[in-house]
Amino acid sequence: LGRLPRLEGFTLNGHLPVMDTGAGKPPVRMFLLHTFTWDRAPAKDLWRLFLLLDMPHLDSLYLSTKSTSGSYQDTSVTGPIPTTISFASLRQLSLFCEDSTAFKLACRMLELPNLETLVLGRSGGKGLPILPSPHLVFREPRLVKLCSLELRDLELQAEEAVEFLSYSPSVKKLILNACRGKHRLSVSSLHF
Q1: How far is CA 102 from CA 58, 61, 120, 126, in A?
Q2: In the chain, at which residue ranges do the beta strands (DSSP E only) sit?
């Protein structure tokens, strides 16, 4: 990737990269990369790739996780694991997971201070994943700049849905697409 300095968009579709940068080497700098898509990413380990790619102008990130994606062949991340990976310029995040556990693993280490658009949904699997509480999904659950929130094919429980909305006070556009719940989610239950 270091040989593609003009790369603006990058997609990994069902591919588990071999981490071949070696311990102690600096990350690959991708200054012009604005969009990154990773389909069938391993929820537990996807952060490892972000340690090796410096994407300072990344605007849009699409992640779809698959629990059977395996693990990395990785000798490059040694020593202490960082607590955060910052995406300061990221404005749009789409995250699709098979289950609630994958939601909790995928973005936990990511810092997303300027996120404006968020789409959360199901990537397959049996049944609808339950939308977890935002503090279990994001390192910093207060998404103060979030303007647009779309939830797709998720099971919504009233308490978590209300909590998610209360952590996102700037939302101007809310889309609930094919979401269900054990309890009826009424307009009055969304009032906080």
Answers
A1: 23, 16, 12, 14
A2: 9-13, 28-29, 35-41, 53-54, 60-65, 85-86, 92-97, 110-111, 117-122, 148-152, 173-177
- Which tokens sit at 157? 């429980």
HSE of 162, CA atoms in CB hemisphere, 13 A: 12
Q: Tell me how far apart the alpha carbons of residues 11 and 22 are, in angstroms, rounded to a whole number.
A: 23
Rounded to 5, what percent of the chain is helix, strand, coil? 15, 30, 55
The strand pairing partners of 130, in sequence order, are: 155
Share of the chain above pLDDT 70, in %: 81
Contact (CB, 8 A) for 43 and 72: no
pLDDT digits (tens, 9 = 90+) for 150-175: 999 999 988 888 888 888 999 999 99
Q: Which amino acid is at 60?
A: S
Tokens of 191: 């009032």
Is pLDDT of 192 > 50? no
150's tokens: 């779309």
| pLDDT tens digits, 64-107 | 998 654 555 454 555 566 778 899 999 999 999 998 899 888 88
Contact between 44 and 105 under an 8 Å Cβ cutoff? The reply is yes
* CA pair distance 18, 74, nearest whole angstrom: 7
CA-closest candidate to residue 130, choices 171, 92, 159: 159
